[in-house]
User: What shape does this take?
Amino acid sequence: MSQALPPMIDIRQLSKSFSGQRILHDIDLQVQASQVIVIIGPSGSGKSTLLRCCNGLEVAEQGNVRIAGQDLLSNGKMIDEAALNDLRTQVGMVFQSFNLFPHLSVLENVTVGPRKIRHMPRDQADLLARQLLAKVGLAAKADAMPSTLSGGQKQRVAIARALAMQPKVMLFDEPTSALDPELVGEVLQVMKTLANEGMTMIVVTHEMGFAREVADVVVVMDQGRIVETGRPQQIFVNPTQERTRSFLQAILTRNSSTASTDAG
Amino acid sequence: MNFDFSPVLQGWPDLMHGALVTVEITASSLLLGCVLGLLVGLGRLDRSKRWRYGICTTYVTFIRGTPLLVQLFLLFFGLPQFDILLPAFVCGVLGLGIYSGAYVSEIVRGAIQSIDRGQMEAARSLGMSSAKAMRTIILPQAIVRMIPPLGNEFIALIKNSALVSLLTIADLMHEGQKIISVSYRSLEVYLAIALVYLVLTSITSLALQYAEKRLRAGGAI
Assistant: This one.
């Protein structure tokens, strides 16, 4: 058997407490290049915290996190500020609440990273940004201000903004949870395209349809622990853990009662 | 009761000269106050930097907790005991600037803290250092929110500048009092002075309204 490549994201024995309360317990998770991992679980289960540990927005006090072969957290110790800033350029993050920069145009939102961090010349950054905006279907909105966009459009700009740094990994923190139901599809479509292009992704979401269709691995979390890990087929059809079953039951019941087709 | 505005008319060139000094003093101390206020406001954002936070907080507490007149007298009459003899104008600018800086720092801090936390997180997650994120993402948004309270502060500074007349500085107030001392026309002269201050504060207020409009039109929130 040939030696496997080191994982793109390698999390080992990660633990985090917040004011005395354990939020993450001994998390082990490896993500291979081009894999799409979807993390599901009830609210407060630590999904978002785990995701935010992957780019240093949260600091865990135990364990190891390596991204693309570089240390982020080593034996509970964060790398220094300069190394962290550098590593973050390789890890794109998309937030539930978009967090577009309201004082910058759509184009500037996408160019601000390459220009201010990579010192890319303006015309080159503009070109890159226009390509990315076209990719997310918003070429026509380049000169608009964020406040004039719909939620779905904002989130697609946020994805383009993250992609502008040409990251190796993309993290999605409930990217569709703040959207009106009819706008969810356009964002998921962009994410699917990204996944098909081979982007390594970790997605925290309640969109079970997306998890089924796109995920290589589904991770179920509850109370700060990984309860179950498996291929979507296995998790959704034959969950081995009682907690997975009860969570899925709750989600599916809710989704069918709102006539959503996502849960299938 | 009679009114006699002729001393005001005769002394008008002196009053205008005094007004010019008032403008010079307030403009200089405004600049000093804004620079100090920005530095101290930023210094009070991060409590983990204990020394910096402590020094900035002590400054704000002392300056806000003591009368401006006492601070001006400390500079003008107190420092000479250490053989530090500053020109009156410098004392006036320093005193007003340091005083104003304490208030501006609170305006700066409040405006920055009012910007959604997600803005800083988004900027940091792109790979910006905290200083770069502050400069390119947070401050441009915060400055728009600072303008209305800064307007209040600037207007207060113009009015407070009348106190520097007690440091022998020939500002508007001082020139007016010289006219009174020879004409005994207190009511007329003080009314004229009040009117000139009103013109100065009104111009400032209009200028800030204009600036706010421009910035908002520029798309900043």
About this structure: The CA atoms of residues 108 and 126 of chain A lie 8 Å apart.
